Amino acid sequence: MKESIFNYHFLINNKEYIFNTNNGGLIEINPNGFTDEEKKILSENRFWVEDQYDEVCELEKEINENIQQGSEDLTLTLALTYQCNFHCVYCFEDKNDKVMEKETAQEIIEKVAQILSEHKYNRLRIHYYGGEPLLNLDVLLYFHERFKIISENTGIPYKPCLTTNGSMLTNELISSLNFDTIQLTFDGLAKTHNSLRVSDIFRFDEQVQLLGRILEHSDTQIRFRVNLCRQNRIEVMELYHYITEKYGKKRILFIPNRMIKFHEEDQFDMLSIKEYSDALLEIKDALSDEYKLPTPERTPCSFVCRNAFSIDTDGNCDFCETTKEKKSYKFKDIDVRKKRAIHFREECRNCKCLPICLGGCVVQYNLNAGSCTYEKYHMEHIITKYLQSVNTNS
What we know:
alpha/beta, TIM Barrel, 3-stranded antiparallel sheet, 13 strands
């Protein structure tokens, strides 16, 4: 037998612990050694493995088997237009005048109806995207009404999500659409937010008011996203408290993310992956004293393995809305049974955190922006915090 390559060893308060990222298990080591029964449990839970057992190859095999089993949800991201009325400094889109026509929308709707009639899904998740999707409101409404009909006919819940800059969201639209979620991005407090948005309309205060209007006129959950960069990092918690003290936390999901440079000339300073990990840890420490143990992933990003689809204005598919890869196939021609296998990169195969991130974001890696998970840099802190919260609550 040999010890798992995914084991972390920590000495915390004079006690030795092992945390395994492949099973999410934490054990305290008995200084007197393990009993035969304990050794058996450790082996069954892969803290120890057979000498000839290749953990990385077996993990890769397991993940690819999970990919082939498909997803519980049919998830589509629809780029309704590449037009936008803002000029955010971090936007990855190469803006143009393309919009999705109703003929293309109808092809997608018919394909969705066909897929749901032939395959079992628990939910239909539709993400309306852009550009600014509300600049193609007619097609958005066309999709929305027909997906509601498909949902009624199949009994499969329809879960619509909108990512928007918010400038065109009227109270009437908020109420009538009543989407499952709406994502609004705040890029710092007023001065920083307005400078990164580069827009003469719909400034910080108006977006704050919009958040309140969504809560008032719908049952929609708000994805309160903040893209972190060096310009706004120190403002994040002040921004969070400003929003939550004004509107509470109910139906507001806080999502810190890293602002990524897709173009060399983008006018902001991107955090390194280590700087972002440090910032994320500071946020988590500020928000709660309770930590959960890191959880191993059992499938990678759904777009990467074709368990979700990003569709452009012409009805072509890509594996993610942020990629610039040539789109070579139409969604209407998709066979949802054909998945894309993953293969771990060589530099990831010796990383103890591999089961937690499965290699991270492919797009960020291809941009040389770094794709490692924050746990890689702060595992001992996380385990220490977890043990403190367990001891406090016991």
